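Suppose a colleague, Dr. K., hands you the sequence of a protein chain of 257 amino acids and asks what its three-dimensional shape might be. Before reaching for any lab equipment, you can write down a predicted structure in token form. Begin with the sequence itself:
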Amino acid sequence: MTGPHIGMRVTAWAATVALGLTSGAVIGAGTALADDPIDKLSARQIADRSSDALRDAHSMHLSTRSTPADGSAPTTLDLIVDRAGNCTGSLGLGGKHGSVRIVKRGDTVWVKPDAQFWKSRDSRVGSALASILAGRYMKGSASDPRLSNLASACDLATFQKVVSDNAKTDKGTLTKGRKTTLAGAPVVPLVRTWHGQKVTMYVAATGKPYPLRIDATGGSPKADATVGFSAFDKPVPTTTPPPDQTVDINAQEIQAT
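The predicted structure, expressed as tokens, is then:
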């Protein structure tokens, strides 16, 4: 083969979960003043405010966990990401598939699969690449087809656009719960039910009405998921792996595997 294909199916389920609550937020929402206490607004008005806040964020920390309908091991994502496509963090591919550390700056991406990742691949190629990398990052262009699928996980702008573009639909039943706390922060829960799925979004009740967590359960096929949002507008760390900890994906020894 000509080098490794370090790809994975980066699903859009996190955006889908968010849309379960934000979609339809502006339909019949009515007028709400900017200084209205968030917990005094209607469910639709709160969802509208939260959608706007999420869309306007320049960067954030995303933490996701999704359990597939077939009951297999959960997939996870833990990334600090911005609208320019810069990111740093990790992706868990589920159980025996291992995990991958990722750093992306501009059009350059560094990935470091763990030992379990290589074990889940072709035994000869996986062993060879694991030996070549020896715990180092693989470096290449984010547009390289062998890395582009992983790099797409850093696309915050698309995630935000999907939420925004779908904000004019109206699905299911949306209700507002009583003001409560989430990890010590005051929040207002919104619950949307549609086609057997229940999606709960916890909206910050102080400061900007960011969504802080979204939980989804049920649906068809049944799948449970959680999305956590934090560190809004805090910059993505600029540190990238040093040269002595990287191997270029186009290096001859990698191309020979």
